[in-house]
Amino acid sequence: MANSHTAQGCHLRKPEVTNAYLIGDGIASLASAVYLIHDARVPPSQIHVLESGPRGPLCSTGTADSGYFISFEQLLNFSCVCLYDLLSIVPSLNDAAKTVKQDIDEFNAIPGNRTYSNARLIATDQDGPQIVVAKELGLRKKDTRDLLSIYRTSEKKLSNLKVTDCFEEEFFKTNFWCMWATMFSFQPCHSAAEFRRYLHRFVLGLPTVDTLGRLDLTPYNQYESIILPIETYLKAQGVNFKYDTGAVRLAFAQSSDIKVEGIYFGKDGGQELIQVECSDIVFLTLGSTTACASIGSNDSPTGPVLSPLDTLRASDTGWRNWSSLFFSSLLNSPHITQLGNPMTFYSRITESCLLCFTVTLQSPEFFKLFEELTSNAPGRGGLTTLKDSSWLLTIVVPPQPYFLNQPDGVQVFWGYALFPAKIGDRVRKPMFDCTGQEIFIEVLGHLNFPDDSSWTNSITIPCLMPYATSPLLARASYEDRPPVIPKGSSNLALVGQFVEIPEDGVFPLEYSVRAAQTAVFKMMGMQKQPNGICKGGQRLKTLIMALKALLS
Known about the structure:
By secondary structure, this protein is of the alpha/beta class. The protein is 29% helix and 16% strand.
């Protein structure tokens, strides 16, 4: 029925006359392009991706000689239904007859690749590192009651509260909090409403929070296993990628509704204009968790966090585009509450920064000592958190090789810290003032590994990410994150981690793909719905298992 309408009022579009302009780096634009081709049948040549560069924020780079680098990666499991749906469409780079999802399934079917941590937490003791019995969550009865209370409380009542408003100080010293926080990058100052969403979303993981069982691994790092195959597929299909486009300004029609008429973008020092026709659609990625990332080296630090104003000036297009959209909407009042408020998320960098690091080793000694300490082969342990480190360091020792071009004899692991502004325990300065080598020394100290010639050729690349956890910040208003399809929008959809998807946790890849599905299906006027949110809390048996874990 050509005149059918969705609940959002988007009419059924004819794909053969639709041009789609996808503005922004990252998986939200890539996923949108895949679904426009596969589900909406838009010709690939009519899909235009405007990015700041040919290698987006999720890229992994480096060599064995210069040192490898990966950006922060997320945990994957069966609950990533949208991401896995996407990867069931994209062909494998190794075998075009298979999909990326099949690659991941086959890799995880290998018995040695299933995760089961024997050392989720490691404590620092006078006698050396001690494996914590993490199954003992350390929760007092008051903590358990508070957890159940926040689980049952409506999100509306928690909207502007922080996690610290809902728990006593002792809760943040428990094994449960240490494991939950480092799994999802939560800090005590983060949003209580988001914390509640994660409890509902991942309650299935409570019984295995100490072992990280049932995680899915990718054959290589997530950029080369997920992002690169998607980019390769889209380019082979004929999608038009426009790189180095700079900041974008949208031109709106003079109307009480939201209708984009033009896209202005910077190119080669000048400005270009794309005329948006009545049949066209525009998808804009809001914000960025990788913006203003500062990469150091083995011999130089990342440097301290800039002020919010300075970071916005130096920021990538994601934040500048949203800020431009927000401030321009102030001149047209019907748009204000529909386009969100970026200031809520980019103005509290001390609450949203994270520092990750990647270590390249020419010697097998570290992996050998780590396996002896943890009883976990590479990839089996998932995350290992050094719970007494002032930076709250977490280490990930993945299966090898971790990079497509990684030679035999070279090993790579990575890690991250939630509190890089604190003074280190071995290297007595803030983490962002430390060189890569000094960060590695801090890790060795907590593990009580010898600081000797075994590490002479090691290379550690640190990366400070000011906005890494900004989606988890407490919101002043529910409208700070706008809907995927703003009310009254005829051709503009908003995607990424800073849009509002009720009941879902802002997990980077899964959330962005769900937003992309929503944008494509609704903006194209399709009857299809996004994959359902996997919430174990809807089943009584799951809740009983989770309660047993909390009360054990």
